């Protein structure tokens, strides 16, 4: 890869490259080697990304199944919220009655011990 400029004044210089030309050729060679390594690393990265995408695609059916399960399990809460205050009041009253019954039982225990 010698770059020679033959001019009438150069004479013998065209036959032997100068120090500048030698250094330039060495740098061009190093750049070419570096670019080849970059290309190899990019190809390796591309293969790894493709394998990761393939593995991710294998889990798409599992993800869809879990999404359906999540939607199914979340649906009753949303339906209760959308149904209105009537159902909330009934469930709230039953919870309150359960707490009142528990307190009542707690009151009975001290009386039973006396």
Helix and strand layout, with pairings?
Elements (H helix, E strand, L loop, with lengths): L18 H40 L1 H24 L1 H29 L1
Question: Describe it for me?
Answer:
The protein is an all-alpha fold and 114 residues long. Among the domains are: 15-58; 61-92. The chain has three helices and no strands. It has helices spanning 19-58, 60-83, 85-113.
What fraction strand?
A: under 5%
Unreliable spans are 98-102
- Radius of gyration equals 41 Å
Mean pLDDT: 75
The end-to-end span amounts to 110 Å
User: Helix proportion of residues, in percent?
Assistant: over 70%
Count of helices? 3
| Biggest sheet character | none
DSSP summary, beta strand count? 0
Structural classification:
mainly alpha
The global form is rod-shaped
Query: What is the N-to-C succession of helices and strands?
Result: HHH
What are its keywords?
single chain; 114 residues; 0% strand; kinetochore; microtubule plus-end binding
Give a short synopsis of this structure.
The protein is built from three helices and no strands. The chain is an all-alpha fold and 114 residues long. Belongs to the DASH complex DAD1 family.
């Amino acid at each position: 890869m010698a770059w020679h400029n033959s001019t009438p004044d150069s004479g013998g210089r065209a036959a032997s490259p100068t120090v500048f030309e030698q250094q330039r050729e060495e740098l061009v060679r190093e750049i070419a080697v570096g670019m080849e390594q970059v290309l190899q690393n990019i190809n390796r990265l591309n293969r790894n990304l493709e394998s990761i995408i393939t593995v991710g695609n294998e889990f798409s059916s599992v993800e869809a199944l879990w999404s359906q399960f999540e939607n199914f399990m979340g649906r009753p809460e949303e339906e209760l919220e959308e149904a209105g205050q009537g159902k909330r009041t009934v469930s709230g009253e039953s919870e309150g009655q359960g707490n009142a019954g528990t307190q009542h039982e707690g009151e009975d225990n001290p009386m039973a011990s006396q």
